[in-house]
Design brief:
611 residues; mainly beta; 5-stranded mixed sheet; elongated
Amino acid sequence: MRGALAATIVWIAVVPAVLAAQRVHGTLRDSASSLPLNGAVVSVVDSAGATTSRTVADGSGAFSLPLNPSAARLHIIRIGYVPRDISLSSDRAGGDVVVMASLNRIPPVLSTVQISSSELCPGSTDRGAAFQVWEQARAGLLATVVTRQTNPADVAALVFQRYVGARDAVITRQSTGSLGGHTSRPFTAAAKPEEFAALGYLAEDSSGVRTYNAPDEEVLLDESFAATHCFHLQPPDSAHVGQFGLAFTPAPGRDTIVDVSGVVWMDAAAPALRAIDFRYTNLEPAAVAAGVGGHVEFRSVGNGASFIDWWNLRLPVLSRAMLHAPVGPQPVETRRRRERADYRVDQLIESGGELLSARWKDGTTWHAQNSGVSGVITQRDTRAPVPFGIVSLAGTADSVMADAQGHFELAPVPPGHYTLEVRDTTLSAYLPGRVAKSRVTISRDSLTTVAPTLQSSAELILAICKDQHTHGTEAVILGHLAASDLRGVEVHATWGTIATPSDAGAISMVTQGSTVDDKGHFVICAGGREQAVHLQIARAGVAADTTVITNQSLLTLVDWSPRAAAPARPKPPEITEFEAPAPDRFSALVARATDTPPQQPRAIATRPRRR
């Protein structure tokens, strides 16, 4: 230990004051490498032990703090290093003080984690590995608090509130918003640390309405938290490779209130605070099984700033499983929460946010990597791209249109489990849109790649007309009625067909009906190609008919605007034909038909087909 202390160099010099108030300036370095040491919290402490000012060393290890006459020492703490105290001379002669100091790095902790399982509880005198790691965690938390106070950044953040399924964790409803401005606490504890220590983290009124409170950094830093929790080292798991953890649990005797237990995770190679996971204790078994609690993640940048870049609080919506309907007034529930096995979690409410970007006054910037989903929409049968499809996440307002090659990217999106919906609106005027749904998991700092497929128009039409023996050799009319109050009206289609192969000159008439849906869509299946088809509507107050000629391909698209008309002298229907862009590689004819008064279906002369 003496050798380590000897490696620390402290130089205090008095220089002429250049500012109105006396200050202490300095630079911190790593004792082994002599490289500048950023991110250390430097505090001025008076003779009574009170902190009068504090800051965080910047990217070059430099710091500057005001001095008052009672300043007695500097206290320097950084995660991964031995804390230092440097005395300040009481005779400063009105000049600024310059301090040059080196800090000693503590030994790697991972090896200690693997061999030690001792627990540090209130009243313990053990100053072993668990105590040292707790001090390191406190140093990381303190750096975050001081950065926010002394070097706030201009930030942009995405915040959210959502409901997720209790069993599958799939998001059913989510609302998001944007925040901007200076760095602030993502969430603030609703009470003082000593109140949590005495009463716990849950308040419940007489009607059963609950308020869950989350511990913020200042609660975790308070001595009352250490006085009510035990600590032990937590080895890394598959989700925390290269990290070490400090687990905390309520001290014995706190099983009558809702407390918190969890783990503080830190990097091993480059000491830094990475995350805090916590769970509420003494809740109903269903709530405990659902992982009710919170998760907070931390970042640090080259200028020494530490900040929270992701936070999420997960709370239960509980109901009681009743085997029989209660009769009369019900007694107040007196069983302890952890004994209520007949309660279930119907769904979970999550609220949180993600920092998207930050910029500090020294010009340092940080940007989060996009979290979201991307891919290419293709047809299921041909794998050809589907252009201009609409991609959305169920239960959210997040949506985007694919480009002409079917490519899309939806970001930023809060991480979570979603239902991805892909819609093709190519024939939306004539058919319900083609929709494909799939589950997708969006992770932090990455774009999840998916490959959604949609039915082709041919597949969709054949599915709709499967009972009409349409196998791709007949014609199908997709129609849209541009008229109000036609829901439930039937469109009757009539066309001629050869009676029998032996009597090629005989024509028989075929009639088919189609009910108009609430969007004005109707479908006529199994007509003939390049054939005149007579369409007719008859209902009180509305009487119209028209004739269309089907296209050479499978689909013929018809926009029809029937209107009320009094019977009049029959006249031949007027037909206008033009070629429209082909959906899904099928050419299509759109007939813009003008109405004629109702008339009886008539035989249409056709030439016998050559055999």
